[in-house]
Write a structure and sequence with these properties.
CATH topology: Hydantoin permease
Membrane topology: Multi-pass membrane protein
CATH architecture: Orthogonal Bundle
Radius of gyration: 21 Å
Oligomer: single chain
Strand content: under 5%
Helix content: over 70%
Largest sheet: none
Pfam families: SNF
Family: Belongs to the sodium:neurotransmitter symporter (SNF) (TC 2.A.22) family.
Number of strands: 0
Shape: globular
Bound molecules: phenylalanine, sodium ion
Order of helices and strands: HHHHHHHHHHHHHHHHHH
Number of helices: 18
Organism: Orenia metallireducens
Protein name: Transporter
Distance between the termini: 54 Å
């Protein structure tokens, strides 16, 4: 049966919505991006710009996206269309960005699925670097196409299969139920890793390097810009995701409070990850007799090269902690993928009046087929391009356009009145100021600088 706007799917409970929103927010960015970013940008001192960015951009934009989705009861393209027909394009840009991130995310989670299995016997051997590039990806060089790798293909099938099943079952029976399993599981996984991490010999050294504040970085505006960039990414802002998720909220929902809870829960996960990651890196540095900066890293290198090495070095239960680590990447990543694919799916459902089952089938099959190209050695080179596009233009463009359209071209007060009407917790003038002045200026500056460095 086709669903019209009146009987749009709905979350079964407030907790379900929050867990799903947190599931989207908590992802690879928390586990492999945040800790390294803190370490590189002045340690504990970085928390200052970070929290400033959370309060002046993260939470205000979350309230904005959640408020818009809730008020308009539609995914990004429909929500923007309801403001003015021509703004629909912006929604589709967000959907496009979503598609790009999905490709990126699903490949990495597929790798993590494979590595979870490799962890059982530490199949990566004594040289995880050579293993990753040569044995696993089958590439001899950066632009080597290699061959289609069965393992990666299987990993992708797992990722898309799970996503398909969850989304097929809809908001309440699918996403909400899955989030109620994924999020508690993730807390447990990370909790165990934190305890293991901080109790290893050398861990204190690692944590010192992670958090020791260097306040001189605060003079550097690039540090502030990095903080804003991380906050946007980590809260899944500028993708239309929070718009789509909130379009399924019941009429009476405390949007403002939900936004605060989502933001703080996400920060909590980031800190937990930081303690786990740097505890283990500290141990690794000590075990190898090298300084921390030789092992500290983030991203693909941390997850698929440094961590396998660290897992080899653990004093016992290596397989157990190896599986745990990759499982946490898989769980955090999958719940983000689900939100990405849902944002995409709900957009085409809204636009073409498609049923969920049909839309989900088309999108998942298409997504799976598109990502197969990454099962080759070329994958890593394309990922690099994707990462570049994404970090430089994707979310900044959408975020800035959101601020300008809602802040200047349309009445921001419409959203404000709406959220303040449905929420017990109300936003004040700081909200308008954050969106109209702080967030727009920072994003505008970010974009100009990116284009400038691109041209030189
Ligand atoms: N918020 C996710 C993270 O921190 C990234 C993400 C962005 C996921 C947008 C989904 C959509 O890893
Ligand atoms: Na996040």
């Amino acid at each position: 049966m086709e669903k019209n706007v009146e009987n749009r799917d709905q979350w079964g409970s407030r907790l379900g919505f929050i867990l799903a929103a947190v599931g989207s927010a908590v992802g690879l960015g928390n586990i492999w991006r945040f800790p390294y970013m803190v370490y590189e940008n002045g340690g504990g001192a970085f928390l200052l710009p970070y929290f400033f960015a959370v309060l002046t951009a993260g939470i205000p934009m979350l309230v904005l996206e959640m408020g818009l989705g809730h008020k308009m009861r539609g995914s990004a393209p429909l929500a923007f269309r309801k403001i003015k027909e021509k703004y629909e394009t912006l929604g589709w840009w967000a959907v496009l960005v979503t598609a790009v991130v999905t490709v990126y995310y699903s490949v990495i989670v597929a790798w993590a699925v494979n590595y979870m299995v490799f962890a059982v016997k530490q199949s990566w051997g004594a040289d995880p670097n050579a293993f990753f590039f040569k044995d696993y990806l089958g590439a001899t060089g950066f632009w080597d196409f290699g061959s289609i790798k069965t393992n990666v293909l299987l990993g992708l099938a797992v990722v898309w299969g799970i996503t398909y099943v969850i989304l097929y079952n809809g908001i309440k029976e699918g996403i909400e139920k899955a989030s109620k399993i994924f999020m508690p599981l993730l807390i447990v996984l990370l909790g165990v890793m934190v305890v293991r991490g901080v109790t290893l010999p050398g861990a204190i050294e690692g944590l010192n390097h992670f958090l020791e504040p260097d306040f001189s970085v605060l003079k550097d505006y690039n540090v502030w810009v990095s903080a804003y960039g991380q906050v946007f990414f980590t809260l899944s802002l500028g993708f239309g995701i929070m718009i789509a998720y909130s379009s399924y909220l019941p009429k009476k929902s405390d949007v403002v409070n939900n936004a605060f809870i989502t933001a703080f829960a996400n920060c909590g996960f980031s800190f937990l990850s930081g303690f786990a990651v740097f505890g283990i890196l500290g141990y690794m540095a000590q075990a190898q007799g090298v300084p921390i900066n030789e092992v500290a890293s983030g991203g693909i290198g941390l997850a698929f090269i440094v961590f396998p090495k660290a897992i080899n070095l653990l004093p016992g239960m290596n397989s157990f902690f190896g599986i745990l680590f990759f499982m946490s990447l898989v769980v955090a990543g999958l719940s983000s993928i689900i939100s990405l694919v849902e944002a995409f799916t709900s957009s085409i459902m809204d636009k073409f009046k498609m049923t969920r089952k049909k839309a989900v089938t088309v999108v998942s099959l298409g997504g799976f087929l598109c990502t197969i190209v990454f099962a080759t050695g070329l994958g890593i080179s394309i990922l690099d391009l994707v990462d570049h596009f994404l970090n430089n233009y994707g979310l900044a463009v959408v975020g800035l356009a959101e601020c300008i359209i809602l802040g200047y071209l349309w009445k921001l007060t419409t959203v404000k009145e709406h959220v303040n009407q449905v929420s017990d917790f109300k936003v004040g003038n700081w909200w308008d100021i954050s969106i109209k002045y702080i967030t727009s200026i920072v994003l505008g500056y970010m974009l100009i600088m990116k284009v400038k460095t691109e041209l030189t």
